[in-house]
């Protein structure tokens, strides 16, 4: 009798070869039509981005690189720059007026930023409560932030705080004979602080958005435990909105270091000085403008600008370092 022969095992190599065939198929070059379509889409994207790229290179990156070079030169906008190394920085540190501008700017930042953020948070807490005409109040408080940085408002602000103007008359009515703030080197800076505090609308809106994200269940549980309004604010509200608070602190601090237009307009011409009487409103950027465009010391002004950039970067780094001690993020949100 013959034996039966089966060929079933011969199918195994076919199954084993299926994997390499699939890999070879996957490694097949893409269709040339698809590649051309991809190149056209990339080209279209770069064409849409080209205005921004050109603006960044010509108006931001290019001037920054040029100013870095000018910071080490003697340049007056009319003659060719002459390399002088670190002389601009040495002259800057030895200039008492430069040191005064640094102290005025720091004083402005230390006073104006906390007052502005405190008022913004306080108004945001009030607007977070349900009440009639809530939309109107939000728009009314936000409006100064839209127009506060304009030249016209700065001119009006200068008129309000001048001698025998509204503020001066109100002071005399309550028995204070301080005179106009614009002409007083000890008070003009506080007029600038009042102007920046008046523009609290932008951080207020950000605070309001953060307050809306705090779960109401936390307040209800705290009320059941007998926690009062202050304790609820300190133990619930502040920790929950601490990322928003950090964002506002960072943003407003940087903006405060960059103050120029309001200081130059409000203080311009007061006491015959471009930056306030007796340099009362001589903030850093105002003195930079004086050196660059009034004294034609563009090299020195470039050195001052880069030093300001480094100072703001250092302050920003310190704020980011400090956030681990007081900013509370949700798990995995950092």
UniProtKB/TrEMBL annotation:
Keyword check for Metal-binding, yes or no: no
Output the InterPro entries linked to this UniProt entry. ABC_transporter_permease, MetI-like, MetI-like_sf
Extract the Gene3D superfamilies matched here. Answer: MetI-like
Top-level taxon of the source organism = Bacteria
Cellular compartments annotated: Cell membrane
Outline the segment boundaries, as ranges, of region: Disordered.
1-35
Q: Where is the ABC transmembrane type-1 domain?
A: 102-319
Keyword Transmembrane appears in the UniProt entry: yes
- For this UniProt entry, what is the primary localization, expressed as one broad class? membrane
Question: Could you tell me which CDD domains the record lists for this protein?
Answer: TM_PBP2
Entry's transmembrane regions: 45-72, 106-127, 139-160, 187-211, 303-321
Topology relative to the membrane = Multi-pass membrane protein
What the entry lists under PROSITE patterns is as follows: ABC_TM1
Keyword field: Cell membrane, Membrane, Transmembrane, Transmembrane helix, Transport
Q: Which family does it belong to?
A: Belongs to the binding-protein-dependent transport system permease family.
- What PANTHER family does the database record attribute to this sequence? ABC TRANSPORTER PERMEASE PROTEIN, ABC TRANSPORTER PERMEASE PROTEIN YESP-RELATED
Q: What is this protein called?
A: Carbohydrate ABC transporter permease
| Organism the protein comes from | Streptomyces monticola
Top-level taxonomy: Bacteria, Bacillati, Actinomycetota, Actinomycetes, Kitasatosporales
